[in-house]
Amino acid sequence: MGTREMERDLERLIPMAGVVDDEGSISPLASSSHHSSGKEAFYKVIRSWASKKFVTGCVILFPIAITFYITWWFIRFVDGVFSPIYAHLGINVFGLGFMTSISFIFLVGVFMSSWLGASVLSLGEWLIKKMPLISYIYSASKQISAAISPDQKSKAFKEVAIIRHPRIGEYAIGFITSTLTLHGSSGEEELCCVFVPSNHLYIGDIILISSKDILRPNLSVREGIEIVISGGMSIPQVITTLEAQAIHAAGLGKYTAPHVQ
């Protein structure tokens, strides 16, 4: 397809080699000028075709190169935690430190899920919170890790929400982090604390909004995080609210044919 496109461009851009005058003869001056312009048009088409293919190659190879680079850096970083121990013992096997680190992380997860591990973690957190500067760093890091934690009890992001923000007619994707009750002159009102990311997953606005004004889509927290990280490129073509799904399911159940024995 690329060769056919280049041939069509050449046919459109390269003029005839000569020009016939009134007497039927070809003018040498016109012939040479059109010949030079034809060469320039030919080189222009070649440069345009080559640059287009080069940019296409860059677009294809860039995400692949970034993925391999980050993966290679992560493997070397994790491998460097335990590889010095094996090097000191005279064992030089690449990847052994990486496998040891992965096994260590898995065992930590198993241990911390137990009652004894939770007790040790609580004691360690109590000691860290007594340190002036380190306590702030640990608290922020813990909130970040809790946002994507598979443990439903410790998730910072409870639910994906769609709210009207920042203007009427515009919608923003956010995450419900907590709920509260507002006591006002008109009585009590249930509010949801919605975190709306801006240019980063953990940098954004905190909005207190009535639970009645929140649209709850059929998206999991993990899918919402993927949408934010990808800049909206991974958002599905159709989003349905949970309320609409319930109404649709109730309608289907209402008109379901009875079971005949």
Any descriptors?
7 helices, alpha+beta, 4-stranded antiparallel beta sheet, 4 strands, 261 residues
Structure description:
The protein has seven helices and four strands. By secondary structure, it is of the alpha+beta class. A four-stranded antiparallel beta sheet has the order 1-2-3-4, covered by helices on one side. Strand 2 and strand 3 form a beta hairpin. The longest helix has 61 residues, at 28-88. It is flat, with a radius of gyration of 32 Å. This is Protein LIKE COV 1-like.
Question: Which secondary structure elements does this structure contain, and how are they paired or packed?
Answer:
Layout: H1 2-13, H2 28-88, H3 96-112, H4 115-129, H5 132-147, E1 159-164, E2 171-184, E3 187-200, E4 203-210, H6 221-229, H7 242-254
Antiparallel strand pairs: 1-2, 2-3, 3-4
Helix pairs in contact: 1-2, 2-3
- Rg value: 32 Å
> What's the helix count?
7
Q: State the low-pLDDT regions, or none.
A: 13-20
N- and C-termini, Cα separation: 62 Å
Q: What would you call the structural class?
A: alpha+beta
Strand content is: 15-25%
Main β-sheet, spatial strand arrangement: 1-2-3-4
**Largest sheet features:** 4 strands, antiparallel
Mean pLDDT: 76
Instruction: Give helix % range.
Output: 40-55%
**Molecular shape:** flat
- SSE ordering: HHHHHEEEEHH
Number of strands: 4
